[in-house]
Specification:
The protein has about 550 residues and is α/β, with parallel strands linked by helices. About 60% of the residues lie in helices and about 10% in strands. It is built from 18 helices and twelve strands. The protein has a six-stranded mixed sheet, sandwiched between helices. It has a four-stranded antiparallel sheet with strand order 2-1-4-5, covered by helices on one side. A two-stranded antiparallel ribbon has the order 7-8. Strand 11 and strand 12 form a beta hairpin. The chain is elongated. It holds the Pfam family ABC_membrane. It is a multi-pass membrane protein. One of its GO terms (molecular function) is ATP binding. One of its GO terms (cellular component) is plasma membrane.
Amino acid sequence: MIVPQLWREAARFPATLAWSVTLLTLVSLTHLAQAVAIAWSMSAVLRGQAHDVLVALALIVGIALLRLVLCLAQASAAARLGGRVRQAVRRRAMRAALVSERLHDTAARDGSMRASLGDGVDGIDAYVSKYLPAVAQLLLTCPIVVAGLLALSPSAGLCVAAGVVLALLGPMAWKRMAARRGLDHWDSYEALSADLLESLRGMATLRTLGDVPGTRGRLDARSEALRRATERVMRVSLAETAVTDLAVQAGVVAASAAAIAHAVAGQAPSIEVYLILLLASEAFRPVRDLSRHWHAGFLGLTAVPGLDRLGAFAEQRATAPGHAASAVEGDRAPTERRAEELRVTGLGFRYPGAPDDVLRDLDLTARRGSLSAIVGASGAGKSTLFDLLLGFLTPHSGRIELDGRPLRPSDIAVVSQRPVLFAGTIRDNLAVTGPATEAELVAACHAAGILDEIRGFPNGFDTEVTEAGTSLSGGQRQRLALARALLARRPVLLVDEPTSALDAGRAANVIETLHRVARDRVVIMISHRPETLTEVAHVLRLDSGHLDRSAP
């Protein structure tokens, strides 16, 4: 089956694709050459020509060794092609996922997104790396074999040609049915992934509420739906395989009958009879390979519609001014950039369907050298303001400028309220913004106030961090996230609730660290704890969509 999105993705890497196809075609030609050598050896045995037998055997061994080398090279080229396509698709899918419509879509489920970005993207590898080169191999080698058979025996050639056409066209109806049922299978897989992830995240709450049996029942129902969908796909797949095998066997049998008829009639030397028999089998090798690779890549094919809807195959996603497809993947500056002033003028925003503006005619000026803090009641719009600065949302009115030019997502680094840390080393978690030297790691951690603690660990920067950073304290996670943000080398730093989970002493340490960081960049923080801001001179209260200087 032709999936245009995946063909276009593979065509983005023409050299790698061409090299993979060329190597696979050469592998096919070695099979044909070996068939000729085997036919020669068998004919020589019948004629009692020992020298020709030895030469033919040497050719067979040499061709087998050559094919081994070519297969290894082709597997490497196919792996490079699949890896590059996976990387490109996943990068665009993640960029498309980080747009305001999806970030604020309450109906979107993290488990479904995870299945698409993980298993879905990984699943297209088999189609791209194996199936596409196999299609090219079939188009190149099958005509050569059929032409050779027609030259040897027109009737055998016609039988094989008819068998190849039937083996390709016959399963098309089954493949279309499998594609439709595959979509149901992927939907069931996504739903189970989403339910499972949400259940694991809320396990403590489910146990407290006594809903573990109910959750187990829902997961059992999802699993049963996935099992039924899988069985339906497998039944269709078996029928398609049967049609292909019937066509292959019929073609081979018909060609063999034609060869035997020629031999009985004395119309062909024995070597030609052997060639007809062997080439008839080789003509169907690309067809069998094609069918095998299609089944191997079936899971990825079922994920293509979802990835397409997500925007994983889009050339470029258009965005409004100030709207970022990804604030996480902004270009990393090669050198430290500085800015003097972030100015927000007349900013207004209202969520679709909301009766009132969240922010209206809001003005804000934050300068390098001093820490700016924003406080306000829950729901006042503090997070909305940060989303507007980041470009996740597009303002309805107003301007956001950095030193007189529009603020870009690549100007901003963020430390969230609950920093995301990954299972790996401290060095791995710090390096997610890009490669960093040891001196850069040390400088960032020193500025964030975490260096002494890292050096106190037995393995220093190579200390293992558990998933979600649970092996570190809340203050350590905050400061490690701050160091990671500093390594991004952005002139503006947004910090969301950095002291929410800390005691008074550690909260004071974090505020002191932010003061130190603010010497080199514009720093704006959100806080729900005014008592921790006694040392912050520039405190603004967000109320009724406006910012006003907070009373001391």
